[in-house]
Amino acid sequence: MEPANKKWKGSYENSRQYNPKxxxxxxxxxxxxxxxxxxxxxxxxxxxxxxxxxxHKNSVKHKSxxxxxxxxxxxxxxxxxxxKVSDDVKTAELQLAVAMACHCSIxxxxxxxxxxxKHGAGSTLGNIKIHRTKCTxxxxxxxxxx
Length: 146
What we know:
InterPro entries: Znf_C2H2_sf. With 146 residues, the chain is mostly helical. The chain folds into two domains: 10-78, no CATH class; 87-143, no CATH class. The protein is built from seven helices and three strands.
C-alpha cells in the first residue's frame, strides 16, 4: 500500500498547468494545447514544472537548437535594406569631397550636391547623395588615411 503523501503528490503533479509568469523568465516558452509548457526552439513539450523547465534550458538539445533559432531570427530582423551604390557614384562623391576640402567650405556641398543631382538626371551625377556630414566623413575616414 502506498503512503498518503505519494497519492497526494501524484494528484498534485497531474493537475499542474503552464504558468504565464514563466514567459518573463523563459522567452522561448509557450503554452501547449494540453496545458504543458512548449519549447519553441526544440519543438517539444516540457512538463509544466519550474525545475523541469530549468533542466530543459540547460540541456544539450536546447543549447544546440537555441543559437540556430536566434540566428535565423536576427538575420531576418537585422538585414539592412541599403541600396547598392555603383562604383562610379562612389568615385564621383569622393572627387566632390576632395574638391570641397581643397577649394571651398564643406557646408557648400549641401547646395552644390542638390544642383548636381537636379541637372545630372539620367547620368551618374543624378544618383549622387552627398551632404556636409557624408563629405566630412569621407574626408576624415577615406581621403585622409590614404
